[in-house]
Amino acid sequence: MEYNITFMVKYGKVAKNNIAPIFESYEWWLGLVSKVLKNTDEFEMRLWKDDVEGIQSGQRFGKQVPNNNTMEIVFKGKLTPELEQEILTNYLTKEGHIKWFTLNLKKGSEYVFSSANYGDETLITVDSIEQVNVIQMWAKGYPIIWRVDVFQCEG
Fold this sequence. Notes:
Elements: E1 3-9, E2 13-14, E3 21-22, H1 27-37, E4 42-47, H2 52-61, E5 63-65, E6 73-78, H3 81-89, E7 102-107, E8 110-116, E9 121-126, H4 129-139, E10 145-152
Antiparallel strand pairs: 1-9, 1-10, 2-3, 4-6, 4-7, 5-6, 7-8, 8-9
């Protein structure tokens, strides 16, 4: 059985683009993505044309793919140690928000992590209720996370 877990996180400021949240701390995001990176092998970055730092990251680590559905610029590729390092150490813009509008991480064809809307809509997928319980306990260590929602996946 799979479960999707989403996180509601407090933020105070919004970037100049009027949609990117600027969080007081990104420790929660780093903690979550570092857990997930160990079990992923592919990525997808979705960016807007003014996400210059994110686009540079996509060009460096992936291949731009056609996107006729939205106006987003999309990059896909294999997860490399260099990209892993980028995600863990160079994830913020100069303004202080996550540089990818959406960062999806996959294992094979399965999405296991999605950081959308510059981290404001973050989701992970786990395989068991035990893993759900571990993540819920982990989240209690970050006061910035004010709610954790769990959804049982069909199938």
